[in-house]
Amino acid sequence: MKKYISLFLCVVFICTAFVSVNAFAVDENKPLTRLEAVKMLCEIFPSGEGGEIFSDTDDADVAYYRKFGIVQGKGDNTFDPDSPVKTEDFLLMLKRALDAACPDLVYDNQKIIWHYDQNVISGYAESQIAFLSSVGVYNNSGYLNADKIISVGMASYYVKLAKYAKNYGLKSENGNLGKKLPPVLMYHVIDYPVGPYEYLFVTSEDFEAQIKYLYDNGYTFLFPEELSVAHLVKKPVVITFDDGNEQTYRNAFPILKKYKAKATLYMVADMIDTYGYCTSSQLREMSDSGVFRINSHTLTHPYLTDLTSEEIEREFAQANDKIYSITRRDVTSVAFPYGYFDEKVLLQAKRYYKTAFGVNKSARTPMRVPSRYTVDGTLDMSYFKSIFE
């Protein structure tokens, strides 16, 4: 009898333990909510203090993520924490969290994976999601189901891959030029009416032909922050734009997105939100896309060599603050207006930046950054190709 009682108690204990464990088990097939997404992404980018709360949740993690632009509201200052999340929206949040946690992670366009249902990804999300694939956050070319609600289990799987990329992915060392200096191209305006300064203008048709040539021939697009890994990637090239004319957003940005290229805009900070120049929302969109990095072309575009050290410092510091307030990404590179610099300028530049660029034919600076090739309306395709030979 004692044997049967012992057996009964053992069965009861096992069943109780099973029920207890499963009471706390996560249903991996259930839809992921927006609040759950934030909690999960804290594994990538740990939460901290600060941030403005939404009217429908006072969750501290949500407020902190809002401060960094990782999550956004849904109108009327609401977050809608209990609503389910589509796959593409979760991947967008994941990309932003990974950028915040690991800003030196290199997204190599040569490693992008395409999906059978690529056409269902929203236009605003396509480049971010494509760049995520390049660091292995998803690793097959099947169906992404970007427009479907994501499950807890699938979201957890993507987070696991992102953690691996954060810990083991290729990372750059900002300011270190490495063993190979790639060609650096300088553009100004795409498709502006031709005026007296032809070197400023390139037509959309010519610009697309140039980017397509680089894409078709297997070039890897790098940011200036990534020069240290130029010798580790296939055919590196750096694309830059000066000034921040609105055509950079309207005409260059769509072409760069089309070919999953990366470029840097050196923005004149005081021209933001003024007629003919990029707006804050445009800059934020460009930066958030993963296609553009927004760096400094100073505050007012002066001849820096004519300024005092204090005035130069103001040009750099205030430009950085203004750009950072929009992109939430550190400003680490500068393009000197007109290419002019001297020892006084360089002394201040070293305080504020990791890299600095001149223009065509200017000398290599003591910061060891090469000059750029000016790409203008007089440049034919044969000469453009010769830059890379």
Structural class: alpha/beta
> What is the chain-wise order of helices and strands?
HHHHHHEEEHEEHEHEHEHEEH
How far is it from the N-terminal to the C-terminal residue, by CA? 91 Å
- The CATH superfamily of the largest domain is Glycoside hydrolase/deacetylase
What does this entry look like structurally?
By secondary structure, the chain is α/β, with parallel strands linked by helices. It has helices spanning 2-23, 34-41, 60-67, 87-101, 126-134, 152-168, 204-216, 246-258, 280-288, 309-327, 343-352, 381-386, and strands spanning 184-187, 189-190, 201-202, 220-222, 236-243, 263-267, 292-296, 333-335, 355-357, 373-374. Helix 11 links the parallel strand 8 and strand 9. The longest helix has 22 residues, at 2-23. The model is unreliable at 1-5 and 7-24 (pLDDT under 50). 38% of the residues lie in helices and 10% in strands. The termini are far apart. The chain has 2 domains: 34-168, no CATH class; 184-386, Alpha-Beta Barrel (TIM Barrel), CATH 3.20.20.370.
Highlighted features:
single chain; 389 residues; alpha/beta; TIM Barrel; 2 domains; six-stranded parallel β-sheet; two-stranded parallel ribbon; 12 helices; 10% strand; globular; disordered N terminus
Summarize the structure.
With 389 residues, the protein is α/β, with parallel strands linked by helices.
Topology:
Elements: H1 2-23, H2 34-41, H3 60-67, H4 87-101, H5 126-134, H6 152-168, E1 184-187, E2 189-190, E3 201-202, H7 204-216, E4 220-222, E5 236-243, H8 246-258, E6 263-267, H9 280-288, E7 292-296, H10 309-327, E8 333-335, H11 343-352, E9 355-357, E10 373-374, H12 381-386
Parallel strand pairs: 1-5, 1-10, 2-3, 4-5, 5-6, 6-7, 8-9
Helix pairs in contact: 2-4, 2-6, 4-6, 7-8, 10-11
